[in-house]
Every structure is written in C-alpha cells, then in structure tokens.
Amino acid sequence: MKNILLLLLTLSLFSCKTEEKKEQITTGSESVSEGEVSNLTPAQKTGQEIFDGKGNCFTCHKPEQKSIGPSIQEIAKIYKEKNGDIPTFLKGKGKPIVDPSQYEVMKTNFYITKNFSDEELKAVEEYILSHAP
Ligand code: HEC
Fold it and tell me: Tell me, what's a Pfam family for it (predicted)?
C-alpha cells in the first residue's frame, strides 16, 4: 500500500510539471515504470509482451520492487553477475540462484514456460536482462 501511495505521489508531482495530469493518472499504477524502458529492441519488446501477457510473470515480478517474487532488476543483476541462463531455468533444468528459499513458488510457473519456444524464452531473458542496473 505504501508503495502505491509513493507511486501516486511521484506521478502527481511529475504531472504538474508536464501538464498532462489526466493522461498520467489514467495510466494507473501498474504501467508507470514501463514508460522508463521504452527503448527496447524488438526481442526485448517481444519478451515484455510475453512477460506481461501470456506468461503472467508481471503478477509476481515488478520492475524495481520486490513483490511476491524478486524484482526484475534484482533478477537481472544476479543473472549478469553469475552469468546465469534464464531459458534453462525456465525450462526447469536449472538451479535457482536468486532466492532459492522461494523456489517452490516460482516452480509453479514452469508448466507455462515449458511450452515457450526457445525464441520466446530468449526474448524473455533479454527483456529481464535489460533491467540490469
Ligand atoms: C506466483 C508468483 C510468480 C510468478 C507468476 C512468476 N514468478 Fe518468477 N519467481 C517467483 C518467486 C517467488 C521467485 C524467487 C524464487 C527463485 O529464485 O527461484 C521467482 C524467481 C524467478 C527467477 C529467478 C530464478 C532464480 O534463479 O532464482 C526468474 C528468472 C523468474 N522468476 C522468471 C519468471 C518468469 C519469466 C515468469 C513468467 C513466465 C515468472 N517468473 C512468473 C514468483 C513468481
């Protein structure tokens, strides 16, 4: 709840500057940070569509703050540092390196990600890694 308030506050501050009050507010709290990552490559964009769409990953992974799962930024940071392989993980063939204690929760998604093509998995990986700080 606190986060949403903060978000709204940031939004309204921002909209005062740009005079686009109505438009800013109607974008809602969920899509706010997407505006920041608008320069995506085609693969990253496909990844985003899967992530926010049929993958339903967005429910548990927000760009910058931890919710049910770690933030996308956190995942990107650790996968870059450790040179991890996201497609392998999403096929259920890897080991968790971000938050192993919560692995059981993430595992429930493999029945979805196992049906993704290699190309789709790669796109999701590129989208996630584009959030590395
Ligand atoms: C029900 C909530 C939930 C959903 C939906 C979800 N995740 Fe997760 N995810 C988690 C949790 C909790 C973790 C932390 C456990 C872990 O690290 O394995 C996690 C961890 C991860 C990790 C890091 C794994 C590691 O090495 O530790 C990746 C990558 C990931 N999720 C990708 C995805 C993608 C892609 C989707 C959509 C297809 C998705 N998640 C959907 C809850 C979820």
Answer: Cytochrom_C
Encode pLDDT of 99-125 as tens digits.
999 999 999 999 999 999 999 999 999
Closest CA to 116 of 92, 132, 99: 92
* Mutate which of 48, 54, 56, 60 for ligand 1 pocket (most atoms within 8 A of beta carbon): 60
Taking the C-alpha atoms of residue 25 and residue 114, their distance in angstroms, rounded to an integer, is: 37
Residue ranges per structural domain of the chain: 1-30, 41-129
Decide whether any atom of ligand 1 lies within 6 Å of the 72 Cβ. Answer: no
Q: pLDDT tens digits, residue range 4-17?
A: 555 555 555 555 44
Q: What is the pTM assigned to this prediction?
A: 0.78
Helix spans in 27-71 (H): 42-52
| CATH code for the part of the protein at 41-129 | 1.10.760.10
> Phi/psi class of residue 83: alpha, beta or left (left: φ > 0; alpha: ψ in -120 to 50)?
left
Q: Is the pLDDT of residue 22 over 70?
A: no
Ramachandran angles phi, psi of 62, nearest 5°:
-95, 155
